[in-house]
Amino acid sequence: MKARRNKKQIPSFRKLLKTSKVKLENKLKNKQFKQQSTLKKYRKEQRKLRQAVKDAVSKKPIPLEDPKEKPPGKRIEREEEEEEEALPLDMMDEDDLQLMRDLGQRASFLTRDLSSSEPVHAKKRKHEHVIDKYEKIPRTLQTAPEKELIHLLPIKDKSGIIPQTREKPVTDSNQGEEDQEELELEEEIIEDPIRELTLEEHLIERRKKLEEKKMHIAALGSAILGDPESNIKKLKEIRSMLTEQDPDVAVTVRKLVIISLLELFKDITPSYKIRPLTEAEKSTKIRKETQKLREFEEGLVSQYKFYLENLEQMIKDWKQRKLKKSNVVSLKAYKGLAEVAVRSLCELLVALPHFNFHNNIIVLIVPLMNDTSKLISEMCCAAVKELFKQDKLGQASLGVIKVISGFVKGQNYEVRPEMLKTFLCLRIKEVEVKKDTEDINKPKKFMTFKEKRKTLSRMQRKWKKAEEKLERELLEAEASESTERKLKLHTETLNIVFVTYFRILKTAQRSPLLPSVLEGLAKFAHLINVEFFDDLLVVLHSVIESGDLSYRESLHCVQTAFHILSGQGDVLNIDPMKFYTHLYKTLFKLHAGATNEGVRILLQCLDVMLTKRRKQVSQQRALAFIKRLCTLALHVLPNSSIGILATNRILMHTFPKTDLLLDNESQGSGVFLPELDEPEYCNAQNTALWELHALRRHYHPVVQRFAAHLIAGAPSEGSEALKPELSRRSAAELFETYSMAEMTFNPPVKSSCSKRKSEVSQGDSFLNEDLNQLIKRHCSEVATHLPLDFSKCLKTSLQ
């Protein structure tokens, strides 16, 4: 008979490739389940077989038949029981019956009577008596307790087969068998226990794992950089390592993957924004190169999006401080991952302002500028400042300004001042842009055909046509943004900035944001619309008069007011006398201590108030400021003295009649009143600049040079004239050049020579002889220690 052919075909390799991972796992589970079920069946059969052998051994011999006749009723009942227990052979086929007989001949030694030593397949004697069978069975005493025996494998000898047995311990048989089976299963499943590693071995193992991960990341990254269009799918493989589950290297590997993906995106990202394809574009037939480029762009955008989502999730996990189910990363490690994620977002914000999802990055970064963590806040503010500085067009700056303005308003102006200080880095020069658009970058006008025909010959018209064609091609190739669009973006940005500033001035005048607002207004005040000038000046004066500002903030207010009036405010007939009075009154708040840095703002204010508004400044006001500034130069640091004296030099050149302060003779009636806070009525013309003679003996050589120059009348030529490096610099530049921030003098100051001890007279020579003797006698007396009673002195003082 031929073997049955297996109709089930072996699946091909292609079919196996198409099979999903879930199907393969299900097949493996089914296979394991079948193996376990067959194992259980086999054990069950073995258990039944052992039970059968046990029953056969312990079976009691049936008593001999009684020769006497039994009652017919009992005989009938016994025959019926035998018929019920007997196998119904009449219902079986002949083939099946023959098969059962053959199996009985091939039965194992476990199924037969082990007491006989006959061969297994020996033929039974047909005429053997029944009594002999029972005689062969060993007899046991009924008084002795029966002991269970465990039948072992028999031993075959020359004489025959010798059975082997062993006593079984008295236990619950069923429970013992089940426990034994469970132990066997556990021994099969449980592997050898893992040996615990020492600290050094653990570190070595961790280092090996890290090296493997680094090499894998480096290999994938180099492949992507080598051919980005072909290997763009490997970005997904690198990004999948952001979910590293090995607790030993999970945090380090995730940080490495974040930095690696950041550098990859910075290198392979194109210099244009990728837009989604329309349905018409998808349906059209294209070349292979174009299709490859489209696949690269789609894969790049999708992976870039998933990367940003992963970074956002890391920051959220750190904010929420919740452990995940995997418990691979600890709560302490969340902060380190979040810092790396924020740093990556900041670099993407600056490096890829033109690419997709830039607005999403802005929305993530702006709230972190107000974060409680100082490191993260500084990183985000620095990134926004860098973006403002390098943004020439203004599109990215406008997006950031919109989000910051909305966030500040949503937080009810309770944010860090550093957020508003970033506005100072905006590259907005409205006046210069307007000048460029009006004068320089006027649109090119080409001649019409009639104009050419009237003014040019035929050959000239031909050359002119070729020249205009070339100019048009050059303009198209340049592809530069028009100044009109740039002006529009800058105007919209400034409007949002000023709205934010004015809201804070109106609603939160005692907010810590006020210094940043005043500093920003001082920088962009010349770009404010003329309609707001009157209201803004009133608000600034009320803020100054409230007395809630520091000296630096009040200087910013004065600077803002005069920036407004020096720009478009020239056409307005406004006399800011109250601002002159405030500055003149508060000049002596500056000193060589903490307020020395305020001199920089003071020099800028004086330049705007006196030099640029020379036509609106009276002589009395100029004299009063020169006199008070010379007095101020006596008690500030050397760099501040140099800046103040340089300002006085400019004022003496701007107002020539102020040289009367170098003369001792008084001009007009009255006496100089230095304590009066009104510069117009202090009679400064009746005093002299005696402070310059004190400054001429100053320890700093540059201060000495400036003082001597001013005493000589600030000449531009001659021996008392200044050198070009001093005369050509502004007061603010000189203040920065000779700064003492590094705790050193520039140039070095010479040390003064100390007098000899012999030249110094002793102190005793100044005292009277009687007084000297009295002092010596008092000092020679022995000091007596008396008990001190402070209660007496206390009582007398109370009385």
TrEMBL record:
<comment type="similarity">
    <text>Belongs to the CBF/MAK21 family.</text>
</comment>
<dbReference type="InterPro" id="IPR011501">
    <property type="entry name" value="Noc3_N"/>
</dbReference>
<keyword id="KW-0175">Coiled coil</keyword>
<feature type="compositionally biased region" description="Basic residues">
    <location>
        <begin position="40"/>
        <end position="51"/>
    </location>
</feature>
<dbReference type="GO" id="GO:0006270">
    <property type="term" value="P:DNA replication initiation"/>
</dbReference>
<feature type="domain" description="CCAAT-binding factor">
    <location>
        <begin position="554"/>
        <end position="707"/>
    </location>
</feature>
<feature type="compositionally biased region" description="Acidic residues">
    <location>
        <begin position="175"/>
        <end position="184"/>
    </location>
</feature>
<dbReference type="InterPro" id="IPR005612">
    <property type="entry name" value="CCAAT-binding_factor"/>
</dbReference>
<feature type="compositionally biased region" description="Acidic residues">
    <location>
        <begin position="79"/>
        <end position="92"/>
    </location>
</feature>
<protein>
    <recommendedName>
        <fullName>Nucleolar complex protein 3 homolog</fullName>
    </recommendedName>
</protein>
<keyword id="KW-0539">Nucleus</keyword>
<feature type="coiled-coil region">
    <location>
        <begin position="449"/>
        <end position="485"/>
    </location>
</feature>
<dbReference type="InterPro" id="IPR016903">
    <property type="entry name" value="Nucleolar_cplx-assoc_3"/>
</dbReference>
<dbReference type="InterPro" id="IPR016024">
    <property type="entry name" value="ARM-type_fold"/>
</dbReference>
<feature type="region of interest" description="Disordered">
    <location>
        <begin position="162"/>
        <end position="184"/>
    </location>
</feature>
<dbReference type="Pfam" id="PF07540">
    <property type="entry name" value="NOC3p"/>
</dbReference>
<dbReference type="GO" id="GO:0005730">
    <property type="term" value="C:nucleolus"/>
</dbReference>
<feature type="compositionally biased region" description="Basic and acidic residues">
    <location>
        <begin position="52"/>
        <end position="78"/>
    </location>
</feature>
<dbReference type="Pfam" id="PF03914">
    <property type="entry name" value="CBF"/>
</dbReference>
<dbReference type="GO" id="GO:0003682">
    <property type="term" value="F:chromatin binding"/>
</dbReference>
<feature type="domain" description="Nucleolar complex-associated protein 3 N-terminal">
    <location>
        <begin position="213"/>
        <end position="307"/>
    </location>
</feature>
<feature type="region of interest" description="Disordered">
    <location>
        <begin position="27"/>
        <end position="92"/>
    </location>
</feature>
